Amino acid sequence: MTAPVEDKIYASVVGSLPDLSGRCYAITGTTTGTGFWAAVAAVRKSAACVLLLNRPSERTAESERQVVAEGKGASKVISVDCDLQSFASVRAAAERVRGLAAEFGGLDGLVNNAGVMAVPDARTQDGYDVQMQTNHLSHFLLTKLLLPSLEAAASVRGEARVVQHSSGARGNHRAAGEGNLESQFFRQAAPGALGGDGMEACFNRYHQTKLANPVFAMALHEKLLVAGSKIKSLCAEPGVSATNLAANMTAGHRQARKAAARPASASPKDKAKAKARSPQPAGSNFKPQSAADGACPLVEAAFASTASGGDFYMPGEMINGTPVGMAVKCMTAGKPTPTSASMAKQFKNEALTMSQANRLLLWAESERATEEFKVGALSKL
């Protein structure tokens, strides 16, 4: 059994955050990993209400108990049933969040954290790629439905925030071709029609979703600015940390093989690709940062007093080519601000995120899949 990875920066980052008394936050995907530690940060800083959006399960109930214990009774912690693989569930969750947040004058922050990585080429009950609906489309819909609640809080307390959670997979080194967003991944399709279950195709679909996150964040930032809104749209990426993403990926492929009665072992080529592209587990020679430390960019984007609309937080230290450590802004106010030459090179000054074509495609295809999303009086970029 491998030893847990030690937290190095989480406590100091949380200690630097402002008091969150009187504020209400909703966070998706809080059973483990970065979402759990974002919720812990909120209750440690005395947020009045923290809403945990997850599919109902014993893990959900246990994580709620743990978050409640961290708050020592100062915060109201409530689980809200939300299955991101069902638009109907997302709509029901949004309605419940609006009602709960109304008690506090609106929702101060929506943290769209939940995600899956490189799972098989399967479909949700709505007919969309599991990764795209979980990682982006349902968060797009949730953001749209909760915008009035965010506006209400912003009008009372001066600001509200929406945070998307991306990853290093947004870069085109993880993608097929140039790596731009493609309409086919946002649309309904037959199972297996978006590349199949090979690791290269699985990670290409993952890239599409993780690029969608900052593209959505920055497109929304632009729209909010033009509309004169006090809502801030931000993004974060955790670098590599010891979360359950890789384990969930493996379980997904094992389940898919079992359902299809395939052999249990992947090809050597696919195994090599999976190892190269997946976060290395705690206890390996690499030693990624802890899940709590990996949550720090997300925590700062959601709660730090220095965060502004259009900011994109990521770890600022590179070890063996992998980002870890204290968060820095790779984008500030919607513009690239890489803090190192390697960061600028790896993400090409966030060229894919800055692409107006990607923003237009994302907004149009996301509306097509969910519903029209206007910001203020605007319907176009």
From TrEMBL:
Quick check: keyword Iron-sulfur in the entry?
no
User: At the top level of its lineage, which domain of life is listed?
Assistant: Eukaryota
Q: Know the name of this protein?
A: Protochlorophyllide reductase
Q: Which organism is it from?
A: Alexandrium catenella
The record's section on InterPro entries has: NAD(P)-bd_dom_sf, SDR_fam
Among Pfam families, the record links this protein to:
adh_short
**Assigned keywords, A-Z:** Oxidoreductase
Similarity comment: Belongs to the short-chain dehydrogenases/reductases (SDR) family.
GO molecular function terms here?
oxidoreductase activity
Name residues in a coiled coil. Answer: none
